Amino acid sequence: MKAVRVLLALPGLAALAWGVVLFAEYALPLRPDVYGTLSWLVGGPIVNDAVIAPLTAILGIVLSRRLPPRWRTPVMAGTVITATLAILAFPLLWRPYGTPPMPGLHDTNPTPGLAFTVAAVWLAVVLTALTRRVVPPITSDAPPITRDSPPVTRDAPPITPDTPPITRDTPPVTPTDRPGTPTDPPGTQPDRPGTPADPPGT
User: Fold this and answer.
1) Is 15 helix (H, G, I), strand (E, B) or coil?
2) Which of 156, 159, 164, 155 is nearest to 144 (CA)?
3) pLDDT (tens digit, 9 = 90+) per residue, 49-101?
4) Is the pLDDT score of 122 beyond 70?
């Protein structure tokens, strides 16, 4: 397992080293615009981790406690996606050419594009919440099923708190063992059909 982790980490470390080489070629010798680039590279993660991520987490906690169950997951997902879109669009909203030129990126207005994307996200949130089926959680009110528990059938009587537990040592219930049924004393035999009875007075 450790060898697999090392193999997975090597491409990432190689890409990181190549990025450092490219940035060194761009930044050396130092120029005034390099300081602005460094502030953007360092300030972006700090603003995200110190401001945007905590606000998103707090908003998610508040929404999860205030909203009905069917709305919680879609709304929280829509909130995270909206925050991610805002981070991606912030350079273009901050100034006209806040990122390097890319075909199809600077020839449009970013504000309507962001607005339509966010609207599509929240439309999907509403549709998901309206069509989502919420399964009630499993509670611990039902008795646990063990090896000694009797099989549950349609004809079995309901189990109530007064019902004695059924164990392996419990004898089977027969028709003569039912409550209220008279039983013959030990050693007697039932009368056979056709046996003459004794005459009175004998």
Assistant:
1) helix
2) 159
3) 888 888 888 887 888 788 888 888 898 899 889 888 888 887 777 766 655 66
4) yes
Tokens of 11: 């491409």
What is the model's pLDDT at position 126? Answer: 93
E-strand ranges in the chain read: none
73 Cβ neighbours under 8 A, 6+ residues apart = 132
Decide which of 20 and 152 is more confident.
Answer: 20
110-113 long-range contacts (CB < 8 A, ≥24 apart) are: 113/89
> Are the C-beta atoms of 105 and 99 separated by less than 8 Å?
yes
The C-alpha angle 133, 79, 76, rounded to 5 degrees, equals 35
Q: How many other C-beta atoms are found inside a 10 Å radius of the C-beta of residue 76?
A: 18
Residue 197 is classified by DSSP as P
Domain boundaries, the chain: 1-30, 32-100+108-131
Q: Is a pLDDT exceeding 90 seen at residue 119?
A: yes
Q: What's the token pair of residue 2?
A: 């450790």
Whether a cis peptide bond, with omega within 30° of 0, leads into 29 is: yes
CA dihedral 88, 94, 98, 99 (to 10 degrees): 10
CA proximity to 92, closest of 104, 80, 81: 104
